[in-house]
Write a structure and sequence with these properties.
316 residues; alpha+beta; 5-stranded antiparallel sheet; 22% strand; disordered N terminus
């Protein structure tokens, strides 16, 4: 009676392991495959009878041999389970993603459990790998992370130009001001705006005006260094933080931007537009008490450039 009951329980267990939506692989300690359930057959296209007794790494050369060997050796030696999530390693078996809901992912994301199988004496003689398909969860989390990154970018950047928005840029001006007070390295601030921008809007329309603003932003982006921070301060006004840059070096950068804009043409549906900009530079000294006073110095230099005839760079 007991034998018959054990046999029934064994067959019930085997039926469950064949039908469950979890991959089950049993290996001996030399990585020869001893068991291979229906999940693994379905996703690999290899039947249990075909793969029985074969060396795992021969059949799946993409599996990271050194990594898995270290994991299995630790499980066998300590007789404890080990777990690996898809975030640590996206998958162990490179199975194609067959779920239509998460069709954006090329491969199945997997969580892995490595368990020891002991003999009656308590010695580990086999290893069981359980492979969980977590593609839907992983795909949702990745999509959420991408969305959050995009929201973070949008919250920091100006939608029209892609430059830093006013709030973010001003925070960086404040941070640069504090850095100067701590280390005393040369740093310059630039404020500039588009000359006669109202007439651009009046003559060509606001959509064409937006194209001019975008063009100014792109020219600026193309001519500043990676360490510099350019932002749209508002309307047709822009600002640039130039760390570790004295007045003369700042003038060189500004003249490059001014010249590129003066000699550029903005092609719009309302016509081709040529325009100029005026720029003011303020190298930071000990006299400003806060970053707003530093910005005011750059703004005053910009005002002088306007008063002086526009299309020029003035150092404050």
């Amino acid at each position: 009676m007991g034998f018959k009951q054990n046999a029934n329980e064994f067959h019930w267990l085997m039926d469950m392991l064949e039908s469950v939506e979890v991959g089950l692989v049993v290996l001996d300690l030399d990585f020869h495959i001893q068991a291979w359930n229906g999940f693994m057959e379905h996703h690999s296209g290899i039947t249990a009878s075909q793969i029985q007794g074969q060396l795992l790494f021969d059949v799946f050369p993409d599996i990271p041999k050194a990594w898995l060997t270290r994991k299995v050796d630790a499980v066998a030696m300590l007789n404890i389970r080990a777990f690996t999530s898809w975030e640590q390693r996206p998958y162990l078996f490179k199975f194609r993603n067959t779920r239509p809901i998460t069709g954006t992912e090329a491969y199945m994301f997997q969580n892995l459990t490595i368990s020891p199988i002991t003999n009656p004496s308590g010695e580990v003689e086999k290893i069981c790998l359980l492979i969980y398909d977590v593609t839907e969860f992983a795909s949702s989390k990745r999509a959420l992370e991408r969305a959050n990154e995009q929201l973070a970018r949008l919250s920091m950047t100006d939608r029209l130009t892609g430059l830093l928005n006013r709030g973010t840029w001003e925070n960086l001006v404040d941070a640069e001001f504090e850095r100067f007070r701590r280390y005393g390295q040369a740093t310059s601030l630039v404020m500039f705006d588009i000359d006669h921008f109202k007439s651009v809007n009046d003559n060509y329309g606001h959509l064409a005006g937006d194209e001019v603003i975008r063009h100014a932003a792109q020219i600026t982006r193309n001519n500043v260094r990676q360490s510099d921070s350019a932002g749209r301060y508002g309307g047709e006004e822009f600002g640039i933080i130039l760390p570790e840059t004295d007045t003369e070096s700042a003038r060189v950068i500004c003249e490059r931007i001014r010249d590129a804009i003066e000699n550029g043409v903005v092609n719009t549906t309302a016509g081709n537009i040529q325009y100029t900009i005026s720029m003011g530079i303020a190298q930071l000294t000990d006299s400003p008490e806060n970053y707003m006073q530093w910005m005011q110095k750059a703004d005053e230099a910009l005002y002088k450039a306007k008063q002086g005839g526009r299309n020029r760079v003035i150092v404050g």
